[in-house]
Amino acid sequence: MDAPGEESGHEGYGLPRAARITSSVEIRTLFRRGKRKKTRHLDVFISASPVARARLGVVVPKHKRRIVERNLVKRRLRDVGRRFLLPALRVAGMHVDLMVRARPEAYGATFEELRADLAALVEELCSRGR
Fold this sequence. Notes:
It is a single chain. By secondary structure, the protein is α+β, with helices and mostly antiparallel strands. The chain has one domain: Ribosomal Protein S5, domain 2 (2-Layer Sandwich). The protein is built from 3 helices and 4 strands; from the N terminus they run αβββαβα. A 4-stranded mixed beta sheet has the order 1-2-4-3, sandwiched between helices. A hairpin with a 3-residue loop joins strand 1 (35-38) and strand 2. Helix 2 packs parallel to helix 3.
């Protein structure tokens, strides 16, 4: 812990609450109305955000896998979103909601492969948004 009066310089290691999409209504709306982009391991649904910031939602279907494997994919996707995706969108000034749904291929992907998939998608989004 920091001593009183000192600042840590980070907001913690989790995905900030304000950057999460958790409402089932919002999730269903994104799946229905969002524009879908496919990558090798993921389906990403993109829509304008109703709030003044980019937000992220992660859905990892079971795909007949064990819960341990599913949780690993969820943790990896949330971490990529927190460390790379949301900061890139913030710098670009884009206020979009992204719903990331793992495809069965995501279970065999490394962290770096998932990061590369999402990085390419964000690069495409940011280049179009200018």
